Known about the structure:
- It is a single chain.
- The chain has helices at 10-23, 51-66, 100-110, 177-181, 185-207; strands at 2-5, 31-34, 69-79, 120-131, 134-147, 163-165, 170-171.
- With 208 residues, the chain is α/β, with parallel strands linked by helices.
- The radius of gyration is 17 Å and the shape is globular.
Amino acid sequence: xxxxxxxxxxxxxxxxxxxxxxxxxxxxxxxxxxxxxxxxxxxxxxxxxxxxxxxxxxxxxxxxxxxxxxxxxxxxxxxxxxxxxxxxxxxxxxxxxxxxxxxxxxxxxxxxxxxxxxxxxxxxxxxxxxxxxxxxxxxxxxxxxxxxxxxxxxxxxxxxxxxxxxxxxxxxxxxxxxxxxxxxxxxxxxxxxxxxxxxxxxxxxxxx
Length: 208
């Protein structure tokens, strides 16, 4: 049984593999695939005004294209002092083809004169589950923290080197992968989605 994780991002795929092992029983014969297995699939234009809209669009488009069950997410960083930036533009904050380093540099520039007490932020993740022509559900998770002043840590991706979980005092990029994966916004969204994912796996198995 194939389930498509609608991403080219190996960091996201690694987290999803971890979360499946944590929340979905291994008795199911599941083959998780990423969009890297579909070299001819068109890019989905993420033109929604919310994380939910973008996640739902990616999930439905990919399910219709592949004919498989799809899990898509849209996630990003919301910084209070910047009126919610970078938000839905997190992956392309410094431009359409910006690297993580370029996005982090732009964020640090915009936060240059913002005091530590005002650097509050949260990560958002919305997971959408779809079958062809059928949106099965959406689930949101959040994770609160503050923004650092310099990148720290070699783990993670995106804004992880700047995002500090206040209860750990470390950036996401300083935490071991398994620790981050158990407290992240993606984990909180997946935990809510797990029952729906498992129920739909059971329905798919019945049809095989």
